[in-house]
Write a structure and sequence with these properties.
By secondary structure, the chain is an alpha/beta fold. It has three helices and seven strands, in the order βββαββααββ. The protein folds into two domains: about 40 residues, no CATH class; about 100 residues, GMP Synthetase, Chain A, domain 3.
């Protein structure tokens, strides 16, 4: 299985990212790095990919553990540092606010997070620490 994107850029931002799934997204370098405000940045996409993948896998895992997810909102913070002279994300902290259907086995939450961390394709492909700080509503 392969996933493919195409980037089109013509002398200035925004560029356009064409995704395999059909989405076309404007992108730019961050404003702080001679880009512009508004479009998606690679940094936002990186942290966002981890956040989206974790949510998708968490929903499946939770359901298998008797917890039916009905609402999920998660802030993700990517910790960017200079390591050996190079900028690198070293940690992503996820702050999910979660609501389950009444009668769900919320006692399985820690297991669901642990299993999700193990099964999440995107975060497993990143060389960084993933921390999850959940809040059940």
């Amino acid at each position: 299985m392969n996933f493919e994107t195409t980037v089109v850029w013509n002398k200035k931002f925004p560029g356009r990212l064409h995704c395999q799934n059909g989405q076309v997204i404007d992108y730019s370098a961050p404003a702080e790095l001679e880009g512009m405000r508004g479009p998606l940045t690679p940094e936002d996409a990186f942290v966002g990919a981890a956040n989206m993948c974790f949510q998708i896998v968490f929903e499946y895992v939770s359901r298998d553990l008797g917890m039916k997810l009905v609402d999920y909102r998660c802030r993700a913070v990517g910790d960017l540092e200079v390591v050996e002279g190079l900028k690198k994300f070293v940690k992503i902290v996820l702050y999910p606010e979660i609501r389950f259907e009444p009668g769900s086995k919320v006692s399985n939450l820690d297991k669901a997070i642990s299993v999700t961390k193990r099964k999440c394709l995107v975060t497993n492909s990143m060389d960084l620490e993933v921390e999850v700080v959940p809040k059940v509503l």
